[in-house]
Amino acid sequence: MEDTAHPETPGTGPAEGEAVLERRGLDRLIAVLRHDGYRVIGPTLDDNAIVLRELESGDRLPDGWGVTTAPGLYRVHRRDDAAVFGHSSGPQSWKQYLHPPRRQLWSTDGDGDFETPPDEEVAYAFLGVRGCDLAAIRVLRKVLCEGTPADGRTAALFSRLFIVAVDCTEPGGVCFCASMGTGPGAHGEYDLRLTERLGDGGPRYLVDVGTSRGADVLARVPHGTAASEEVERAAQAVCAAAEHMGRHMPDVDLRELLRTARDAEVWDDVASRCLTCGNCTMVCPTCFCTTVEDVTDLSGTHAERWQRWASCFEPEYSHLHGGDVRESGQSRYRQWISHKLGTWYDQFGSSGCVGCGRCIDWCPVGIDITEEAARLTGALPTIGPDPTEGSG
User: Fold this and answer.
1) Does residue 391 fall inside a structural domain?
2) Which of 21, 113, 176, 226 is placed for a possible disulfide with 355 were both Cys, Cβ 3.0 to 4.6 Å?
3) 3-state secondary structure at position 240
4) For 242-295, how does the pLDDT look when each residue is reduced to its tens digit (9 = 90+)?
5) What is the extent of the structural domain holding 264?
6) d(Cα 211, Cα 214) in Å, to the nearest integer?
7) Half-sphere exposure of residue 362, counting CA atoms within 13 Å on the CB side?
8) What's the Rg (C-alpha) of the chain?
């Protein structure tokens, strides 16, 4: 994708003179993208969650559905309006399409030749990318496509990607993107950006164009021009969303804090609660670690090597000759948060956290990364075991 860096800062909302779509315009937008050969991926309601699926039409969008989120809790509910994007991040991220959970690297039939699977040359169009996830896509591009050696298959997916971003005007219960500088307004690289506005006539969408490719698509979708008052109200709604977030990451040098916190009591506290299940790494939109597995058929003549997602919460992830380096849950959680909020800066020049809150939402015991970071600063007390538990 061409360089589409946007001059706005998080939360600024739309610019004057933007186009505006009616609800049926979203359906037409999907149709145009599909006509251009894109596989359109967007939110839909499935199995009591807002999940990402391929959209054949706008009929599958989650009109009128919202979500309630809290540590260890996620529930969908009916809204009293027809908002399409009136929900926060779900259990999936766009990572699953750009960095698949499992993919074949090569196969061989024992004749000395190794075959790699052909590139599918699929072109994705992502519809409804929030500011936090837009930042996550930017992080993944840097991690997976700019290193040495770069992943050519993954870089090709990024190069063909069409992004329709969405500003957030209603933060979820676990969102803290404003304190991470990634939202609620979507900024950075996108082809089109939408801001949803609700009224008596149903939802309307202010559209900001980020690339010439986006302009070409928009030209084939019926649209009008937004009035300056509507643009101003939309901008105010996005700014208000930043002020209404109930969570934030401590405004300190987290990299330095974590570097000196190896022996902090916080690690014992969190280890007493953490199940080391790895849910946080699976739902995280930026965690990228993988491992490889070799499999053979029963005859032993055909072999394949597969890459799959891995987690630093797996004991064998740190296995070296002689044993596992991080045997305790304490050391594994400390490794995860220290990399995510600290040493990621040293490797890639930014935080590995974008403030989406998925790790809080989908932790079975409701561990909150913002609270654990605050405890490291001394702003919150440690939790520890309940002294009354188990007493007569």
Assistant:
1) no
2) 176
3) helix
4) 999 989 999 999 998 888 888 888 888 998 999 999 999 999 999 999 999 999
5) 254-377
6) 5
7) 19
8) 22
